[in-house]
Write a structure and sequence with these properties.
There is one protein chain. The protein has 76 residues and is α+β, with helices and mostly antiparallel strands. The protein has 2 helices and 4 strands. It has a single domain, classed as 2-Layer Sandwich (Alpha-Beta Plaits). It has a two-stranded antiparallel ribbon with strand order 1-4. The protein binds iron/sulfur cluster (SF4) (2 copies). The site of one iron/sulfur cluster has 14 residues, from helix 1.
């Protein structure tokens, strides 16, 4: 279990539901909500916890709606 663990936070009011991030994620962490945001777009949600923090989703997002966090394994 030496993997880097990542996490994503999605700004749902910025997201336009273009799905580029869903396609970009190698571990299928992202999916579409059934709910819509204030602009009427189905926004993106985390559907799994397998995020590696690779940042692919954040890099492809045209609206910078995704922030990626990476957690390193704690040194003992
Ligand atoms: S950082 Fe990488 S693994 Fe995590 S949700 Fe984004 S594309 Fe997927
Ligand atoms: S790439 Fe950005 S705007 Fe497009 S669906 Fe993903 S979070 Fe939303």
């Amino acid at each position: 279990m030496a993997k880097v663990k990542g996490d994503v936070v999605i700004d749902i009011e910025v997201c336009k539901g273009c799905e580029l991030c869903i396609v970009a994620c190698p571990t299928d962490v992202l999916g579409k909500s059934k709910q819509v945001n204030n602009k009427g777009y189905q926004y993106i949600v985390k559907v799994k916890e397998e995020c590696t923090g690779c940042e692919s989703c954040a890099l492809v997002c045209p609206d910078a709606a995704i922030t990626v966090y990476r957690k390193k394994k704690q040194a003992v």
